[in-house]
Amino acid sequence: MGYMLRSDFMSLYDLYIQPEAAFEIITCLGNGGYVQFLDMNENVQAFHRRYVSEICRCSEIERILRFLEDEMKKDGIPVTRLRYDPRPLQPNEMAPLETLVEKWEDEITELNLNYAGLLKLYTEMSEMHYVLDSIGPMLGDAEIRNALLPKQFLTEADKLNDLTVLPGHLMIVTGVVRRVRGFTFQMMLWRISHGNIYYRQTEEDKVFKDVTGFEERKVAFLVICQGEELHERVLKVCGGFRATLYPCPRTAGDRSKITQDIGQKLTDQEEVLKKTKYQRCKALFTVAQQWHLWKIRVKKTKAIYHTMNLFNVDTRKCLIGRCWVPDVDVPKVHECLKFVSEKMGTTVESFMIKSNADEKPPTYHRTNKFTHGFQALINAYGESTYREVNPGLFTIITFPFLFAVMFGDLGHGILLIVFAMWMIMNERKIIAMRSTNEIFNIAFGGRYVILMLGIFSVITGFLYNDIFSKGFRLMDAYWINTKTKADIEDNNHITLNAADPTGKFAYLFGLDPIWKQAMNKIVVENSFKMKLSIILGVVHMLFGLSLAFVNNVYFKKYYHIWLVDIPSVIILSCLFLWLVFLMYFKWFYYEPKSTIQNKSPSCAQLLLILIIDLVLAGQTEPKLPAGCTEFYMFGETQRIMHRVLLLLVILCVPIMLFGAPLYLRRKAAKQVKETQEDLADKPTEFRIYRRSTQKDEIDKNIKKKSDFDFGDVMIRQSIHTIEYTLSTVSHTASYLRLWALSLAHAQLSEMLWDMILRDIGIRSCLKHGEFVGAILLFAIFAVWAGFTVSILVVMEGMSAFLHTLRLHWVEFMSKFYSGGGWMFTPFSFANIFNESDDKMDAVCKKLH
């Protein structure tokens, strides 16, 4: 948790590795995930780097493994998952694996080709068998003479024995066409022949598989036409509709015999197909036993060579790299370098030294399964600046709390807890499934966030006394009925006055359940939740400003505390913290049982009028109820307090506007003057410095101190001051969404209960009797449950989630969070499966 408050301390190191130990050292660092390597060859093309050939070999193996994976998916063959983390391929192990996977690729490809050829032949024979079996009853015992056959169906003997085919003789065309095109096919033939053909198709169609395994429903047809010209037209139409044509035997005996022969061949062909498929599945099952092992090892090896390409190679063939390392993990990296060097027996031990380069460090927050989801919400807005206060730690509490204020329902909170607990208890199975559903993956990644949302929703639902829009009673209510029996019988509703006798103790467990039965409950809840949202908003924003104070103390920006932070707190406190105080004072000062008339609730002033008078420095004198003599809560003193608060707000605005820019301008001028005086006092040292190798760097620092742009700083501070002053009102008003969504959620839940379960469900039971009514009530309950989950839990929950996210990103984090850092992404084998290698694969394709 300590590293969630601020990011880890990071250091930049230069790494010197011996070539013979480089592979093992990168492997060791990848197992630990300690360092992030920087590219030392930014100006070198990808295909000119040292280890590009090894990367391309790994890419080729991955291509074959993807091919094998696709083939296994086609047959539904499961891949055996490993229970251990294998080592990457050693350089001498890559060639044997290349030979092995290429052998399996050739074997599977050959089996696929054989199976496709056999399947094509089987499909053609099946279609021909279907055509002969279907067309036979249409032709009956009719004999087809040579003169009736098209020329392409005549044998050489037929042509010698028979006279030439005369124009006008009948032609027969048989085959199959897709069922969905059958009617269009028939109409087209009818049009081109002007109705001068005989067309019949079978009533029963049949499903056939093509080479790709796609199923098509086809129907057999018979066409008899007259003349070669019309026959050519029929053949063109058949080709256009992709109909498959088959010859028709002359006599009924031949048709019957060929049908029997094809049937027998189909039986033999089925056996051959089964054996071929069995051989293919057997080969794929063998591959599936090792496929996951091969994939992980190749992926690791490819990542190692890709990392080694980031290093420079000096004249002594030593690999020189640069990397960011968390200070906590520096001893582990040294230990890794020492261990591998001793293991490999290198003459010179690999080592790393701290770099003097002035670069911006990355931000690294250590998280676990529980905190990862909350940190992801912050990172979606922007990565923390190095060593800046991280809002993710506080978001663990504030995010579920503000969500629950809008989503407060004990029943709905329990549903969220059940869903989150299911994902948590089955997280290993779900991770192993590697789901491709993006929405589910987002929900699964935030399973602990959902759990916290559910827990806080249960708590606020308990305080709201709300479970599926119904209240529950844990103790006696504070309100006591003082009406007589006759009064209750004569009136549909009775009025309870807080000035009348009430219970000894207020209801201790949240909202009094009697408000669930009151006619004016919306008015009371509306006032209560609106004030509560303002209170929570002011406290939340003040907490954000206090974190800005902590940030500036850490970075030693003390001027920012006096000139920006403290005026910001004063502005917010004088306007809205004062309003919060008036709310509490009004609640405690005015009570129905008070004997003083000015302390009765009827004499309570409107806070909206008071705060408007404060801002406008005005004085509103409304008509007071009878018996009330004071408009202000503190009398004449309150007017003076309002003037003082308004004066403080007005004075803080120019301090915020001009304070920081003027201070920075003075500081920059002072630094330039001190630098020039220091150089003037030491001319000898300056001449030596001018000849030193660090001349450019020192000149750069001097120029940086003198290049202070007052106009740019003034513009930025003006924008910040105007934005903060205006947003003080808008941000406070933005927290009213807590009130609005809470009321909307409660009213929608009550509406679903009343309209579906009470009005429809109970009436169905009363109308149709006990048995039928119970069945209808069960169905209606299912409808209510479906609407509750889909609308109240999912849609309303998503709405509350997004509004809570906005309150944190805009209203809270804008007070202290800059988010100008960049994320620390260490080289780790645990993360390589989420990375894309499209760029390197494209390079390999060009090389081939």
3D structure, described in words:
The chain is an alpha+beta fold. Among the domains are: 10-107 and 278-354, no CATH class; 119-270, no CATH class; 557-735, no CATH class. 62% of the residues lie in helices and 7% in strands. The protein contains 25 helices and ten strands. The chain has helices at residues 2-5, 19-32, 52-74, 94-139, 156-161, 182-193, 228-240, 252-308, 330-344, 369-381, 392-407, 410-425, 427-433, 438-445, 447-464, 485-490, 521-554, 558-589, 607-616, 636-681, 683-691, 695-706, 710-734, 737-812, 838-847; strands spanning 10-17, 36-38, 170-178, 198-201, 206-209, 215-226, 244-245, 312-313, 319-326, 351-354. Strands 1, 2, 8, 9 and 10 form a five-stranded antiparallel sheet that branches. α4 (94-139) packs antiparallel against α8. The longest helix is centred in the C-terminal third of the chain and has 76 residues, at 737-812. The chain is flat and about 120 Å long. Residues 157-166 and 685-695 have low confidence and may be disordered.
Write a brief caption for the model.
With 848 residues, the chain is of the alpha+beta class. Helices cover 62% and strands 7% of the residues.
* Average predicted local confidence, pLDDT: 84
| Number of DSSP helical runs | 25
Shape: flat
State which percent range the strand residues make up: 5-15%
Amino-to-carboxy terminus distance: 50 Å
User: Biggest β-sheet: count, sense, barrel?
Assistant: 5 strands, antiparallel
Based on DSSP secondary structure assignment, what is the total number of beta strands?
Answer: 10
